[in-house]
Amino acid sequence: MSDFFSAFFDELPQVRSGLWVTLEATVLGALAALLLSFVLGLMSISRLLVLRGTSRVVVEFFRGTSLYIQLFWLYYAMPTLTGYQLDPLLCGVVAFGLNYGAYGAEVVRGAIGSVPRGQYEAAVALNMSPLHRMRKVVLPQAWVQMIPSFTNLLIQLLKCTPLLWLISAADLMTVVQQLRDRTGETLTAYLTLLAVYFVLAYALTLLMNLLERGAKRRLGLPTGAGSLLRSRSATEAVASVPGGAR
Amino acid sequence: MATEPLPLQKTADVAPADAAPGAAPAVAPETGHPLVRFDDVVKRYGDHVVLDGLNFSVRRGEHITLIGPSGSGKTTILRLLMTLEKVSDGVIWVDGSPLSHVRTPAGVLKPAPEKHLREARKKIGMVFQQFNLFPNMKVLQNITEAPVNVLGKDREEAEARARELLDLVGLSAKIDAHPSQLSGGQQQRVAIARALAMEPEILLLDEVTSALDPELVAGVLELLGDIARNTDITMLCVTHEMNFARDVSETVLMFDSGQVIESGPPEKIFTDPEHERTREFLDAVL
Q: What is the value of ipTM here, to two decimals?
């Protein structure tokens, strides 16, 4: 067994803790992003100009500035401004939440816009309140449209977590980097990282496919049996190939 | 199905018109106090005038069919009544109250806020050309969702009522189906049951058979005929089904260019129309 793997197994508790930090950053960051996606997405379709405007500015700002710089700003610049140092993991969660929340807001806005107008009109004709219409009619239908795009964003978010290394958050990347430095086995170290991130990303894809399948079943749509293992993307959902045996 | 008694006789009698709150119509009501009255209603989309100073009224319990060429503004009338659109000018009166206006302390009518519209919509139900069932709800919930969460009915009571209505529309077996598992005709019958579950005084039917395959049309029309004969629900129906207009409605309104150009009982309109445009239209569709 190579030096790298013996070091890897010797330091297994540390590797496990690094993996845990990566997962925490991904899951908490994704939850923050999801929350922000809905808040900003719903604000962007509000009748009130001030809400629409605020949402627009926030979305454009966080989408238009690099995640890299946002992370550095939160970790290195904010303390000099406020005198308050955030924990590295929390920095990561906030930066991922803001950045991916901005992308997610556009997904929410687009999905709500894709629900046929007749659905809204039928809900009005049944005298539902605006909140009731959104909660019981529009969002459950929009949710199915959102999942493929959210899957893409979630995987991108996972793949951004190695940036935590730059603010010394002791994630998986950081731990493996240290093992590489110690053993000098660059090839094996980075191959291992590639494999681990691929496995994590694929596991997330499967989970999201399950979620999509459940959401489709609730709408009485075909769930595409056997397609659980296939990685789907937003574009693919739209341009499904007729008779596609892939 | 046509002969069985319908479980939808409305027991609540007609509220006296003058009991309507804040009702002091700027224009005195016509004889017999119409349930619906369009008072110089104008609807414009940009420069395009769809309804041009429209006046007509509907008596309580009356079944009216609106006919006329495409683009003559028939559907717009229903959409205005359902408050899906706002009038550009004029006032629609329902049961003596302005539908989409409120009276300011100075006595001037101004466009109403959502709260008033929700009050106004209580009396009115609508069935759409494209059915618009909620795909995220099964048939039963499509029918009970609004009675429970809008009218505040007890769930069991609402479900019992939904079962009666599904029986009426002949779809008891589909109670647990998704809308996507139903044919167009079945979806439309569920949509009719859903509208009836809200106990509307006025039912708006917007080309409800136009999206159906020909063999499914008869079932839906028969059902609507039953409802017209066995309830006191006032019906306004936009349709291209002239037989339906003849069999079900007491009054046919012929529209052209945003105006009622002729109105009368179907036997008169269909056999001896006065207006040249009506004759041309009927020649084209019959």
A: 0.85
